[in-house]
Design a protein that fits this description.
alpha/beta
């Protein structure tokens, strides 16, 4: 399993997910994306480096693919099957998981909508998405070794326009918080998922979730999303070949003990 951090974040924010999954027998790796991590943020704020280059849109999934490529040389405690991988990600890291799953970035909506300051769907995440325009053409980085992804709060509505997910090779669990003002749930999760649910992908909404309180930090139980992501991971590996998306596919995530007492979690897929 791999966990991809977001813009100006780092692996430390996701230790809780790693600890929970590792305690259940999974091998978990938390790579750092050096072109858009905490150290890069410090360099930008100090004036010694520019903001993340649009090329990072392609380099991030290549970071993860390189880890999978080299998993046999990482000195892990036990051998891993690098042909069956689940990837979790938050924010830009969640966008990265979708690229690996086979959703194809396209520049059409970026070119059409980024300049329209009156667009009713405009939100804070567009600042980041619009910065990717010059890197879109090199950012289709599908990796068929990835069988399922858990994407938490991904900026995506402009980057992945209608029809761009038809070539998915990994099942998608999309998670969005009802109070996320950075990547709002309606334009960035609900509307895009309406177009992909027929492949067996699922959307979970978190009441009271914002862009940052869904990260686990060092909580050993994985925080708000710990039980959900563990259930998703268990189901993906248990499904074998059926983990792949397909028309009319049976949902991987069934109703079960994956809720949270502080922030209710709801599978919103049936109502899309």
């Amino acid at each position: 399993m791999l966990i991809s951090h977001g813009l100006w974040d780092g692996p430390d924010s996701f230790i809780g997910w790693g600890q929970l999954l590792a305690s259940r027998g999974y091998t978990v790796i938390l790579p750092r994306h050096p072109g858009s991590d905490q150290s890069q943020q410090q360099a930008v704020l100090s004036g010694t480096a520019p903001p993340p280059d649009p090329k990072e849109l392609a380099l991030r999934p290549k970071d993860l693919a390189a880890v999978i490529d080299g998993s046999g040389q990482l000195g892990l405690a036990r051998a891993v099957d690098s042909q069956r991988v689940v990837v979790l990600g938050h924010s830009w890291g969640a966008t990265t998981t979708l690229q690996l799953a086979g959703v194809r970035p396209k520049g059409s909506e970026l070119r059409e909508r980024c300049g329209n300051l009156e667009d009713p769907d405009r939100n804070l995440s567009w600042t980041l998405q619009c910065s990717w325009l010059s890197g879109v053409d090199q950012a289709a980085i599908q990796d068929r070794r990835v069988i399922a992804v858990g994407a938490v709060s991904p900026p995506m509505s402009l980057l992945f326009p209608r029809g761009s997910g038809l070539d998915l090779s990994a099942r998608v669990l999309l998670v969005s918080g009802s109070r996320d003002w950075v990547v709002p749930p309606d334009p960035e999760a609900v509307d895009p998922m309406r177009r992909g649910k027929t492949q067996g992908n699922q959307l979970v909404l978190v009441q009271g979730g914002d862009h940052f309180n869904l990260r686990p930090g060092t909580q050993a139980d994985g925080g708000v999303l710990g039980a959900l992501l563990l259930s998703w991971t268990n189901a993906a590996f248990a499904a074998g070949d059926a983990a792949r998306p397909a028309p009319g596919a049976t949902p991987l995530l069934r109703q079960g003990p994956w809720g949270n007492a502080q922030m209710p979690l709801v599978d919103a897929t049936p109502g899309l």
